[in-house]
Design goal:
Blueprint (H helix, E strand, L loop, with lengths): L16 H9 L7 H11 L4 E4 L6 H15 L3 E5 L3 H15 L6 E4 L5 H9 L4 E4 L1 H9 L8 E6 L2 H6 L3 H10 L5 E6 L4 H10 L4 E4 L10 E7 L5 H11 L4 E4 L3 H13 L4 E4 L5 H13 L4 E4 L14 E4 L6 H8 L9 E7 L4 H11 L43
Parallel strand pairs: 1-6, 1-7, 2-4, 2-5, 3-4, 5-6, 8-13, 9-11, 9-12, 10-11, 12-13
Helix pairs in contact: 2-3, 3-4, 6-8, 13-14
């Protein structure tokens, strides 16, 4: 590839020589579209609303400018992320860039012990990556104050709102100085996000590299319409047909455990990841999946955006997501960093509406697959609308539940 065009290399984006050296060392050669558009604006100090799917390299779109600006002037960079996994992933990306500048980082996530986080905060980190709930816990204990924040990033902003973090984000924003640079990244731009942007940002520049709801280009997609009781058999056939790593999505935590057990009974190694697992269990599942110790990772929605693993050959939607937009995030786990990938979804005959909602969003008709040994079904004519439970409803105790992340 000839790098004669400036937009094909990191040169010409306004990045300081020392950071260009680091990028060279970590083998970052060609910027992704979001990086080549967002980095120059962010280095200039502009507020940004970035629309980009996961897997498009957006972490470095804000990490590079943040380290460069913090190396030049006083202040702290604060990054908010919806899940522990994503926060850890961002923290890892920052370390390579921050260490040569002697900039310390701290990662504040729920479900992990407070003490090591308090120790990290005592070392006066210049970059703090946090999930909203845990950041507020530290603020209440005066372990951190936000009056020095000069750069703020809200990553996966739509996901944070989906998970009910809007009140915490509002609370945090009240303590962050008005004079700051704000960058908001999101795969989709619902109107609540535009409200945050207009209320808390100064004339933000919109950087959109993929229209809201676009699926990853290199993913091929397939749909099987089968009865619920045929799903285990089809899964078995697919696990024998494909040989690489598989990420499987289940709609509930309880079901994830059952599916994992049945995959192990089929003779494949599997782990599960969801909000009922401890931090150690989640880390073990993810690391084991990355290293190949587990071939199949069974996950619920919460993990859809926190799994940054290159080389996932197949994503299986064992259950369709409750929300069509989550389909985009789920299948975005494969075909990362320029690799090809395949996504297979199982739909039951009564899920015609769910499939149509997905197709409307991604502007593609999903090709229907057939398996010679499993009878496929037509969609039933009566369109079935599943009863939506209220957001705070728990089947188990029939009382409002407080979600732990």
């Amino acid at each position: 590839m000839h790098n004669n065009q400036t937009d094909q290399t990191f040169y010409g984006l306004g990045i300081a020589p020392k950071i260009l050296d680091i990028l060279e060392k970590i083998k970052f050669k060609v910027p992704t579209p979001i990086q080549s558009r967002a980095i120059p604006l962010a280095i200039e100090g502009k507020d940004i609303v970035g629309v980009a799917q996961t897997g498009t390299g957006k972490t470095h779109s804000f990490a590079i400018p943040m380290i460069q600006r913090l190396a030049q002037k006083k202040g702290i960079g604060l990054v908010l992320a919806p899940t522990r996994e994503l926060a850890i992933q961002i923290s890892v990306a920052f370390k390579d860039l921050a260490q040569p500048f002697d900039i310390k980082t701290a990662c504040l996530i729920g479900g992990a012990p407070m003490d090591p986080q308090v120790q990290a905060l005592r070392k006066n980190p210049r970059v703090v990556i946090a999930t909203p709930g845990r950041l507020i816990d530290h603020m209440k204990r005066w372990n951190i104050t936000l009056h020095d924040v000069t750069m703020l990033v809200l990553d996966e902003a739509d996901r944070m709102l989906d998970m009910g973090f809007a009140p915490q984000i509002e609370q945090i924003l009240r303590f962050v100085p008005k004079e700051r640079q704000t960058m908001l990244f999101s795969a989709t731009i619902p109107k609540e996000i535009m409200t945050i942007a207009s209320k808390h940002m100064k004339l933000p520049v919109s950087v959109e590299v993929a229209p809201s709801g676009t699926t990853v280009e290199l993913v091929t997609q397939e749909l099987f319409i089968i009865r619920q009781d045929a799903k285990p058999l089809l899964l078995k056939k697919l696990l024998n047909q494909y040989h690489g790593p598989v990420l499987l999505f289940s709609r509930t935590k309880h079901k994830a455990g059952k599916i994992k057990a049945s995959i192990r009974a089929m003779g494949h190694s599997a782990a599960e990841i969801h909000s009922n697992r401890s931090m150690t269990q989640r880390r073990d599942a993810l690391e084991g999946f990355k290293s190949g110790r587990y071939r199949v990772l069974v996950a619920t929605e919460i993990a859809a955006r926190g799994i940054d693993v290159t080389g996932i050959e197949l994503v299986i939607n064992y259950d369709l997501p409750e929300d069509a937009e989550n389909y985009v995030h789920r299948i975005g786990r494969t075909a990362r960093a320029g690799h090809k990938g395949h996504a297979i979804s199982f739909a039951t005959p009564d899920q015609k509406n769910d499939v149509q909602n997905i197709e409307k969003l991604i502007k593609i008709t999903l090709p229907v697959g057939k398996h010679p040994e499993i009878s496929s079904e037509p969609f039933s004519q009566v369109s079935y609308q599943p009863r939506r439970r209220p957001p705070n409803y728990s089947y188990k105790q029939r009382r409002p539940m407080r979600r732990r992340f």
